[in-house]
Write a structure and sequence with these properties.
Strand content: 5-15%
Low-confidence stretches: none
Radius of gyration: 17 Å
Structural class: mainly alpha
Distance between the termini: 30 Å
CATH topology of the largest domain: minor pseudopilin epsh fold
Order of helices and strands: HHHHHEEEHHH
CATH superfamily of the largest domain: Iron/manganese superoxide dismutase, C-terminal domain
CATH architecture of the largest domain: 3-Layer(bab) Sandwich
Number of strands: 3
Mean pLDDT: 96
């Protein structure tokens, strides 16, 4: 199976109130493309076609010679595809419905959730991601790791805090990037993921 770089679904400058066209273009066409290319190279000897989610859930059955490359680059491909889909030019605001109620129940208020997530993202050492899981717990993971590699459920939201995601715009002030990112989160997509996870549970 050959994995392909997905389309964003919006123009590179569509999120420019929070992430510049330059970063989006570099992030998508260079960083994400590199993950795809290296993933395909690592799996070229594997005959059985599989979804990227299946591959990441089955890392332990891969040969030792390719497992790390697939973990890093397969994770990079999955995570970035998920990330692009989590943002929208029409994003921002707050979730609604059951997700909104559940976040308030768990965190006390929507702002308390934002503050808790943001603090965890700002405090993550080095490169990695912060994930909001269907049970609304937060999980910080290094590099390109994600919850499904650990046998967990598909997350409902994730934030890339690698420096390449923000450095051209925000330099070393990760907190400013995180604050701006909330203005482009596509809450309807997050809500759909949350509802789907509830139906499957």
């Amino acid at each position: 199976m050959t994995y392909l770089l997905p389309n964003l679904g919006y123009d590179y400058d569509a999120l420019s109130r929070s992430i510049s066209k330059e970063i989006m273009e570099l992030h998508h066409t260079k960083h994400h493309q590199a993950y795809v290319d290296k993933l395909n190279a690592a799996l070229k000897e594997q005959d059985e076609p599989s979804s990227i989610e299946h591959i990441l859930r089955s890392l332990d059955v891969l040969p030792d010679s390719v497992r790390t490359a697939v973990r890093n680059n397969g994770g990079g491909h999955y995570n970035h595809t998920f990330f692009w889909e989590s943002m929208s030019p029409r994003g921002g605001g707050q979730p609604s419905g059951d997700l909104a109620s559940a976040l308030v129940e768990k965190y006390g208020s929507f702002q308390d959730f934002i503050d808790t997530f943001s603090a965890q993202a700002a405090g993550l050492f080095g490169s990695g991601w912060v994930w909001l899981q269907p049970n609304l717990e937060l999980l910080s993971l290094p590099n390109q790791d994600n919850p499904i590699m650990q046998g967990g459920e598909v997350p409902i939201l994730g934030l890339d805090v690698w420096e390449h995601a923000y450095y051209l715009d925000y330099r070393n002030v990760r907190a400013d990037y995180i604050k701006a990112w909330w203005d482009i989160v596509d809450w309807p997509t997050v809500e759909q993921r949350y509802e789907q996870s509830r139906r499957q549970s």
